[in-house]
Amino acid sequence: MDFSRYFPIWPQLTAAEREHLSAAAVCREVKQGTLLHSGSADCLGLLMVEAGRLRAYILSGEGREITLYRLLERDVCLLSASCMMRGAQFDVAVEAERDSTLWVIPSETYRQIMANSAPLANYTNELMAGRFADVMWLMEQVMWKSMDRRLAAFLLEEAALEETEVLPLTQERIGAHLGTAREVVTRMLRYFQGEGLVKLRRGAVELTDPAGLRALAGK
Fold first, then answer.
1. 102: Cα separation from own chain's centroid
2. What is the pTM of this model?
3. Does residue 41 or residue 109 have the better pLDDT?
């Protein structure tokens, strides 16, 4: 496996470091819906997505979810190995949104190599900073953007990901992504339908006016 696809600093590692990482990596195939990582008490290791799609999310004490970000092909998930970073533990869950093929590097192996490799340590800090920026962007959306604009933006992003304007999403699932109650999503989608922006189907939402949704989302 060519891990330079995941680590742009791969040529800067020593031959021994590259061999150690490659030997420790384990390939896993997981089915859609598999919970891979369940919070700070779980330390699975560094995840690298070869194929498929993962979702990182947080869960409130009341059982409400909100999606933090998605992980697509060639993306790296560091929060599933946050236990190796002192003072940086997060109650983030990671699940497979699609049947996926992953590479997993155990946390202890990665930590040992990172402790002696400045390029790997710097790359890890860049990964963490990037994910922190993703979460801060989400916080800004939740705090300052109205639900109709957030929902419109979400539907457009899903259509781009799925490459279709008919999205096989239940209203409960949309609420989990956006961190809001299903009833709120239902009311908003009915409003969108009344405005001709979407058409509601059983277990799906069809985007009938993407241009209108883009205008609403401010895109």
1. 14
2. 0.78
3. 109
